Amino acid sequence: MSFIEPAFLYFLPIFICGWIIARRNYWTQIGFMLAGSLVFYAHNKWWTLSLIASYCVVDWLVGIRIEKSAKPRLLLFAGIFFNLGVLAYWKYMPLIAKGILSLVGIEIVSSSRLETWTPPIGISFYTFMGIAYMVDVYNGTVKAERNLLRYSLFTSFFPHLVAGPILRAQEFLVHLRPDHIPTKPLDIWEGTFLIARGVFKKMVLADTIAAAIDPYFINITSTSTQGVWSLPFIYLYSFQIYFDFSGYTDIARGLGLWFGFRWPENFNWPYAATSIQDFWRRWHMTLSRFLRDYLYLPLGGSKGGRFRTALNLMITMMLGGLWHGASLSFALWGAMHGALLVIHRLWRDSIFCSRLSVMLGPIAMTMLGVFATFNSVSLSWCYFRLTDFSASNACVEKFFAFDIPIAGGSADRSLWALLAIYGSAAACAKLCIRHLPVSRFSKMTETGPFIRGLAWGATVGLVVLAIMIAPVTDRPAFIYFQF
Per-residue pLDDT tens for 301-339? Predict the structure, then answer.
């Protein structure tokens, strides 16, 4: 199920009403939240219940055994092997099978299972949560959970289940215990505002951009796009994937607040990053910290000299790229970001960077860094959006060689105006937050009738506006559902 499906409009009020009744008793609340989350996840695909149940049982048992065993490392490796093995089967089986069949000369028909193979939604996210949990138990940073129902709810609670944020035990599991579990919303207005903002990002911004640019990317290798400059389409895709994914995260975090949980932010103005390192501190932040803490640092981090640091960065980012899917394009996307991180480190430590900083000054250096970072990241999106390698290369070629500067959906002035208006409003809001944090504003809505009416009016108005101006088309799923 998705947050933008009609079925969710029926599911959510039923879940809220059931939660209000069930919260009077601890185990009734845990059982109801778990059952509702499994219904959300397995909607129309009930066989996936066995998959997520196997993850929950194995990770729960491994966590307990790690805490009790004299050889916990072997158990940790076994738990990680199970998680990654199942993930690899669903992610990479088509690629492996196609390679084997092509070697023996067997032709694959378009209607075969391999061509229609689709991984279960959310599998990458609850795989990473399970691995992080087992590693944290092994390191002693969290106690193993003794109750299977409670651990299963930690893994499968519906707001974060499908596309994150990737939560750690300290951020969610510990709050499910009897003395911590919330029985009332944490901040109704802030949660509602986040949901409204997420709906607007997805339904208005991301889906409007998708309608404008999808025909170009679908026909990137055909004669109909010959000579058309890919740059504006790539820029628009950069904004689409940001609005799509951050919109989902906003909705997830807002729902979490409705049920009493505050989860970490996943995006912090990533396209305002002044370097590629800064970008990964702002983009998909819960994945970035997972790759840092559970892959990059165990590989040695930056302790082994420049060459070893560069190698660790490349391995981490390439594996991060392959996490998104079994494609050469995804691997190259990760490798590009790894190379950019290595180049950034070399540039940062060079004398040329110091001299240029003195010549240009801090403001100009910041602007130059934002420009270079945004364009580098946007160019790498070619290999993310177009998973066919030849199509990705064609897009990059049209980034540099073109006849027509701007055409098709990217020439829609109303679309660029919409982005400019939203960007201006978001920038103004960011400036206001510096002087009046959201937490303080939320408290003001509780005590000030005028502020409360203004806040709720703006929030409801945002939802109404999203419904009114959203494109009336078949609504595409959230981009990260495929991962």
Answer: 888 788 999 999 999 999 998 888 777 888 899 999 999
Is-cis flag, bond preceding 182, omega within 30? no
Range list of H helices, 140-206 = 148-156, 158-161, 188-200
Identify the pLDDT of residue 166: 92
pLDDT, greater one: 64 or 479: 64
CB 232 within 8 A of CB 406: yes
Alpha-carbon dihedral sign for residues 247, 40, 2, 119: positive
**72-103 vs 48-68: helix axis angle to the nearest 10?**
140
Residue 21 phi, psi (nearest 5): -75, -45
Region of 142 (left: φ > 0; alpha: ψ -120 to 50; beta: rest) is beta
Of 117, 196, 189, 269, the residue nearest 464 (C-alpha):
196
Q: Does residue 284 have an active-site annotation?
A: no
User: What is the C-alpha radius of gyration for the chain, rounded to an integer number of angstroms?
Assistant: 23
Q: Measured between alpha carbons, how far is 151 from 238 in angstroms, rounded to an integer?
A: 36
Six-digit token string for 456: 């709720």
Taking only the tens place, the pLDDT of each residue in 35-48 is 999 999 988 788 88
Alpha carbons 388 and 407: distance in angstroms, whole number: 23
Q: Looking at 160, 284, 324, 344, which residue is catalytic?
A: 324
Where along the chain do its domains lie? 6-183, 190-408
Helices and strands (H and E) in the chain: how many = 21, 0
113 close to 90: Cβ distance less than 8 angstroms: no
